[in-house]
Amino acid sequence: MAIATMNKVTLIAPLNQKNSLLKAIQSLEKFEVYDLNREEQASEILANHYQAKFYRALESEFERIQSNSAFLDKYLPQMSLWKHYRKAPLSLTQEDLEGQLSQEAIKEDLAKVEGAKEELSRIADRLKELGQHEETANKWKNMNFHPKALAQFRHLAYSLGTLPQSADNAYIKAIDDSAIAYAEEIYSDKDDIGVIVFYQPQYESDVQVLLRENHFTTFRYPFTSAPADKLKEIEANRQELLQKRESIVASLKASQSIKENFILAEAYYYNAMQREAAKALIKDSNHLFAMEGWMEKNELSALMQYLKERFEENDFAILYREVLPEEVDQVPIRLKNNSLVEPFELLTEMFALPKYNEIDPTPFLMPFYCVFFGMMAADFGYGLVLWLGTLLALKALHLRGAMKKNIKLFHILSYPTMVWGLIFGSFFGFEMPVGLLSTSKDVNQILILSVLLGVVQIFVGLLLATHLKVKEKDYYGLFSDALGWLGLLIGFALWITGALVLKNDGLIILGKAIAALSALAIVMATVLSSDNKLVGLGSGLYNLYGISGYVGDIVSYTRLMALCVSGASIGTAFNSIITLLPGPARFTIGVLLFVALHGLNIFLSYLSAYVHGIRLQFVEFFGKFYEGGGKAFQPLKMYDKDIEFKK
């Protein structure tokens, strides 16, 4: 239960084996490639000959496949979330993937999907255009002729256009009241009135002045046929386009085989991209290439055996060594814990991974987080719901990675929730006869218990800080940051216990003495570690002000009591609401209310327990001993979105 021990591994092989070896190392997924270009010492033999254009070409093809796959998803039948996670991913080796994938088939599939996408886009644009034409034709549909037909009248001229809308039709009246023109209304909407203005050709100049005075806007009729005929033409074109679209959509809905090919192609190009990116980190000579990286020490034999099965022994050479002190900050971190502690690594990663020379806080976080989460949720019924739900998910669904870890985390947390539910005698807000404490009657005892649990965690944090200071041989820091505060807290605890609980003068004197000596140790350690003793004295005295922070930390643990009592009170209140219903309603609407209200309380209780539990770990606990800042181990891996690769 610690940080995995890493080795620096160097692999040297003939240049013509580069692609094959990279593929083999990627299949193993245990090797993080180190960037040799970061080395300050230049080599006259080795150089980097990486060409980014190959990576960009692979990336472009990968993104193209992803885009078309996402487009296809819109039309393929969608599985429910339950069925999605019930479905087992494809199980392949990298060799299987390359054997099943046909580049020609992928090109054809891409052309087919992209052709369908472009055609659907054209149809959408054309339908939009038809809609605009239909809107125009609908406005002028009362004009049962084409305006050009009026050109045959030698003694009659016309202007087609719109007048602004007005309450009293003042603009039309102004034209009609003139002796030289007549306006025929074709349509009217909230903004405009469509009109044809008739007049004799000899009055054209006067009519144009009249029209301008009445804000007439000329409209150029855009169609070659009359509005009614154009509407029929538009509808015929629309039906033709809709049928064509329906045919394309039907074809896309029947393209499950193309989707399966895209899944394989995504994985293929992603894997190739990762290998190509790794080439940017390695160096070549005329005949050899060299690659360095990080690997778990206990995986080295597996790597050698894996490569020996696939290559001749003289095709590669592997060198490895321990981590050097100056490399500590470069070493990638992989946490190694048993199956019970492993899910809690998610919480550590959420804060920060440890550095290589630190300790993994996960095993120490795990018991406290379980106790605190369970205490804040604290209902046997709620815990049972969580236990059943997570157990069903773990047994019935195909979960991987962080999702599986999260479900396992909450499954483990269901047990302390049920235990605390028994301690407090709570089952869906009802009191059970087995409870040791009551959330309604024993609030003070629960408050004291919360504070005591907090004190225990703070003590553990300071003990871990003590261990780290000894390991670092920082003996001044040992007293100023760890042992001194342990003694100070123990002294105050004895003092308070002797004064308020046991009424024992000897215990009071002992507590005061321990607290005073510890305070002196904190100040003296700070003074001795400082070059300027006067400044050190000031810093040491200021450090003692940190006792207020410890008081705040201890008070912070009262949230355990607050959330425990509030969750139980809300559950009890919901039950009281249901009991107010009359008999028949209690067993009909009441059941639905019970499920809905307690479902809400379960969600809020678990959300609060999750968030506040994390807060106590990150601030009150980690603040005593843990800094973090490590970077995650990122081996050369394969694509695992829809495929589970076999080694």
What do these coordinates show?
With 647 residues, the chain is an alpha+beta fold. It has 3 domains: 2-99 and 254-330, no CATH class; 147-220, Alpha-Beta Plaits (2-Layer Sandwich), CATH 3.30.70.2750; 342-625, no CATH class. The chain is 60% helix and 11% strand. The strands form 5 sheets. Strands 2, 3, 9, 10 and 11 form a 5-stranded antiparallel beta sheet that branches. Strands 6-7-5-8 form a 4-stranded antiparallel beta sheet. Strand 6 (181-188) and strand 7 form a beta hairpin. It is extended and about 125 Å long.
Write the layout of secondary structure elements.
Blueprint: E1 2-3, E2 6-14, H1 18-28, E3 32-34, H2 52-73, H3 81-86, E4 90-92, H4 94-100, H5 103-139, E5 157-164, H6 170-177, E6 181-188, E7 192-199, H7 204-213, E8 217-218, H8 227-253, H9 256-279, E9 283-284, E10 288-296, H10 300-308, E11 317-322, E12 335-336, H11 345-351, H12 362-377, H13 380-396, H14 401-424, E13 426-427, E14 430-431, H15 443-472, H16 475-501, H17 505-529, H18 533-543, H19 547-556, H20 559-579, H21 583-586, H22 589-625, E15 643-645
Parallel strand pairs: 4-15
Antiparallel strand pairs: 1-12, 2-10, 2-11, 3-10, 5-7, 5-8, 6-7, 9-10, 13-14
Helix pairs in contact: 2-5, 2-9, 5-8, 5-9, 12-14, 12-20, 12-22, 13-14, 15-16, 15-19, 15-20, 15-22, 16-17, 17-18, 20-22
Distance between the termini: 25 Å
Q: Poorly predicted ranges (pLDDT <50, ≥5 residues)?
A: none
What is the β-strand count? Answer: 15
* Biggest sheet layout: 5 strands, antiparallel
